[in-house]
Specification:
Elements (H helix, E strand, L loop, with lengths): L2 H39 L6 E4 L3 E4 L4 E7 L4 E7 L5 E8 L3 E7 L12 E10 L5 E3 L2 E6 L2 E5 L2 E6 L2 E4 L3 E4 L3
Antiparallel strand pairs: 1-9, 1-13, 2-7, 3-6, 3-9, 4-5, 4-7, 7-8, 10-11, 11-12
């Protein structure tokens, strides 16, 4: 092997060693960042948190959803259990702008449902009779923060969501 080939191989080995070192340092930095996110997020525990979710968290026999409509219109809200069975419906007339609905955790027969995660849908019926989905957020109390496979998650009772779903913290 001539000296230029030998020098070239040494440079390649040095480059690989630097890449390995960089990857190790990045991995450590990511772990520190995640630990810091969990530590900072721990201050949310016990506070009301509003999140983007298709599920609500029934906590202490209560749950709240928030939605906006552009006009006053009839709105239908349906709550489903984990098996997909509808357990409660509500029909109300929304006002133009911000609206909220609180579920007392009772099913259609008046029996109290267990605390946990329930799927919810909000549908508006326009003046032409066409139904359309209404975007909504869910408000509940943060009960824990955890790191799951590199993703920081917030838990609201039986509902676990990525931290990126959090829209606001505090009273709504």
């Amino acid at each position: 092997m001539d000296s230029s080939q030998f020098t070239s191989e040494l440079v390649q080995f040095s480059s690989v060693e630097q890449q390995i070192s960089t990857n190790t340092n990045l991995t450590q930095l990511i772990q520190l960042t995640q630990a810091s996110q969990i530590e900072q997020s721990a201050s949310l525990i016990g506070k009301p948190v509003t999140v983007n979710s298709t599920q609500l968290s029934l906590q202490n026999a209560s749950s709240r959803i928030n939605f906006n409509t552009t006009t006053a219109e009839p709105v239908s809200i349906a709550v489903y259990n984990s098996a997909g069975a509808q357990v409660q419906t509500a029909t109300l007339t929304s006002t133009a702008g911000k609206n909220a609905w609180t579920w007392n955790g009772q099913n259609a027969n008046g029996s109290q449902m267990a605390d946990g995660a329930y799927t919810v849908s909000v549908t508006a019926v326009g003046v032409n009779g066409a139904a359309s989905q209404v975007p909504f957020t869910v408000t509940g109390t943060a009960t824990s923060v955890q790191n799951n496979a590199g993703t920081v998650q917030i838990q609201m009772g039986g509902l676990t969501l990525p931290f990126s779903a959090v829209q606001s913290v505090g009273s709504q």
